[in-house]
Protein: Molybdopterin-binding protein
Amino acid sequence: MSPTAAIIVIGNEILSGRTQDININHIAQKLAIAGIKLKEARIIPDDRHVIINTVNKLRAAVDYVFTTGGIGPTHDDITSDCVAEAFGVPNEIHPESFKLLEHYIGAENFNEARQRMAYLPRGAKPIANPVSIAPGYVIGNVYVMAGVPQIMQAMLDNIIPTLRHGKPILSKSWYAYQASEGKVAKDLEAIQKKFPQTDIGSYPFYNESKQNGVALVVKGQDQQAVENAAQDIYNLLVNMGYQPHEGEPQK
Amino acid sequence: MSPTAAIIVIGNEILSGRTQDININHIAQKLAIAGIKLKEARIIPDDRHVIINTVNKLRAAVDYVFTTGGIGPTHDDITSDCVAEAFGVPNEIHPESFKLLEHYIGAENFNEARQRMAYLPRGAKPIANPVSIAPGYVIGNVYVMAGVPQIMQAMLDNIIPTLRHGKPILSKSWYAYQASEGKVAKDLEAIQKKFPQTDIGSYPFYNESKQNGVALVVKGQDQQAVENAAQDIYNLLVNMGYQPHEGEPQK
Structure:
């Protein structure tokens, strides 16, 4: 069985519409390559009760939980307090991280707010942050990362090799201009039934040059089944008079 | 009390990393303007059990639930079946929508797959889709929309005026290059405590030209409190030697 995962994005700035989240997509791509199945992603507010409940709910449901956001030095950074409470442990100074941060920031500027970034839930293991030193960490099966994309990505690069990997999820896509979902739907369903070990998706596109069409995507962990299903889809499109191609449509 | 909302993005293509969701951000912005508080957003797979449970859980928790995705003609479009089951009603032909779609597509091309787009849960009221006719709908407090952003946005424009609005959520942002969160954190927390009716967030930015800094954002429904808190933050930044400005930093 492939390992499973969930993402918790913690941040009022996403729910208010101020910020377009790009972390979910990045994590999703890295997990797919590692053969880890992303079951769900939730965006939640900077709210103690909600954070604690969501962490506890999802860490019981999947193999790996990834959180982003809320581990900086300001009053709205409450993730570590909440994760500690979710695990029933104190949030306390992590001496090694304290020293690293003190050295990086300089003792004279290492004020109380900045010291908060050296507090980890007891038992957590820090995850290196080459961008700005303040660490992420793992406790149990919960990986706590920064919200700033550059920092999150660096932390994730350190995390991925430590996870149990599944068979990579392979993907093959056909793009067909002028094709319509309604025309291919019936035959596509038959192909899906013929290859139940694959997951076939149909995604219409409407791009700026009005080159409308459909992208048909096969995903799965069985390479032969993915290739055979993709071949059937290719034949279907050609038989209908379309010219399927593999690249993304031009914008 | 402001009305509350949740978003359910239904789509394997988001969880696989194939597609970057942009619907949550768009809906979040429109809700903020309407004074409707977005409490949570969830991205879930094309899975019957998960869709039904999530719809039932969230429609009980907030005033308005918005779903995107899964209402097209292909086998992976299972949202309407699931929403019908969540409400305990049949998913059946909606005669008015059937006629509209048949007219738009042409009777000779209006096959079984395309007819699926004219099935709505019993009691649902259609939401017009000026882009491709196949309607969204509302049932109870659940608004079911397409996943294609252009179509979703058109549907949402038809929905927003029908919702109960709250006081708009006002926002004021200061961007300060070279400022660091750790330096302002303590005073910022004091400002947050002085204006508890506002929600003050601190967001570091690292842009491509290496012009690092911090964005400090005040949000709230009390205009005077938002303005006063923003003024205090401006003064704080100036006193620390920064030059705060209102615009987004240059990329």
Remarks:
- The domain at 170-239 of chain B is CATH 3.30.1370.10 (Ribosomal Protein S8; Chain: A, domain 1).
- The mean pLDDT of chain B is 95.
- Chain B touches chain A through 68 residues (CB under 8 Å).
